[in-house]
Amino acid sequence: MINTYEEALNWIHSRLRFGIKPGVKRMEWMMERLNNPHRKIKTIHVAGTNGKGSTVTFIRNILEESGYRVGTFTSPYIESFNERISINGVPFSNEDMVKLVNLIKPLAEELEQHDLGSPTEFEVITAMSFYYFYSMEPVDIAVYETGLGGRFDSTNIIHPLVSIITNIGHDHQAILGDTISKIAFEKAGIIKQGVPVLTAATQEDALQVISMVAKEKKAKLYRLPKEISITEYEPTKHGERFSMTAPIGKLENLDVSMKGRHQVDNAALAVMACLYVKSYYSFFIEENSIRQGLEKAFWAGRMEKVSQSPDIIVDGAHNKEGILKLVETIELRHSNQKVHVLFSALSDKPLEEMISMLDTVATSITFTSFEFPRAAKAEELYVKSSHKKKRYYESWKEAIKSIVPTLKEEEILIITGSLYFISEIRTIFIENREKD
């Protein structure tokens, strides 16, 4: 019997020892024991290399503005573990976690004796979310973000109203494959029979695979920028502005507060998903709710300003595609400023390519590390940089102490890299801001 939140969290994290086990058989086994709650919830499914969390956030905010009770399942977390399972942006309570762990733990222990083997941490959390959204705190709709890939992801037991593949990039190649086609095939695994799929993938190899799977599944495909088109894009002081045209609606001068041109693509996919459920599933969504939802949407750790005068921004650009988008945003918004970069990442990422891109836009670049099994050492990162003004500190706290006091008011510090790193370092700035 689990009695406290700490015990519950420790038990969940203890499942990490079982690693990553692609496949849905264990999920199906647990769901059957729980009377299949996943089949009784309306859902939207989101996969992709980058932009999943932002897209989920845009959808949630639009539906919430429309008066709906919206569950979200996301990973990893930035502020607290509980945010992975949330309703209208509010993480589930510590008390509910204890109840859910006491429900799932006996099933996990029984499954350990089964040929299917022990469920992983992610499978346990996914199972908790389905039961929570149906039996404990019923929602009108839940938006599910895949953890890894799609085809064998534990979330892929749902039959959603609409599926979304944000984009395709090189990440988790040891598991998903070493080519865009292979990775696209894994992501396209979320496409279900007759369920429409929206995508912002642009590579020809990726689109061929997604189109092929959609055709096989008789799933209507909406591509950005084909069936969904963006016009009149412009960056604004507080975010981005764009107009969009889709087969089931046209909207002009939409504003998003999350910065970066890539957020426009994420927002457009979210709007299209909401227009679809409005048109085909009778969700009541007014244009004003779409506008307000986009403007209010916030996703921690994505071009988030955590301090000002001088400006300090944290951005979880944790892979090559993420760094590329960050570099584009810096060139678009901060080309006239001195931009100092603090970077840390996991050792299994394409570090040379990522650092090379950052070198091109940084006035100075500092490398650091953090407590995590796969975190790269600061010196390892340092030697991969060709920047003339580079340095490293193994302790990120020492790096912050060294960099921040030297910043001039017109300069900017961008802290980027692993989401685990961003989560750890962001907390310090938020706590300091709340004290002021």
**Shape annotation:** globular
Average of per-residue pLDDT values: 94
Main sheet specs: 8 strands, mixed
Total number of domains: 2
Number of strands: 17
Class by alpha and beta content: alpha/beta
Query: Roughly what fraction of the amino acids lie in strands?
Result: 15-25%
What is the strand arrangement across the widest sheet?
A: 4-3-2-5-1-6-7-8
CATH C-level class of the largest domain:
Alpha Beta
User: For this structure, what is the CATH homologous superfamily of the largest domain?
Assistant: Mur-like, catalytic domain
- CATH architecture label of the largest domain: 3-Layer(aba) Sandwich
Helix share of residues? Answer: 40-55%
CATH T-level fold name of the largest domain = UDP-N-acetylmuramoyl-L-alanine:D-glutamate ligase
Low-confidence stretches: none
**Beginning-to-end CA distance, first to last residue:** 42 Å
Instruction: Count up the helices.
Output: 15
Rg estimate, integer Å: 21 Å
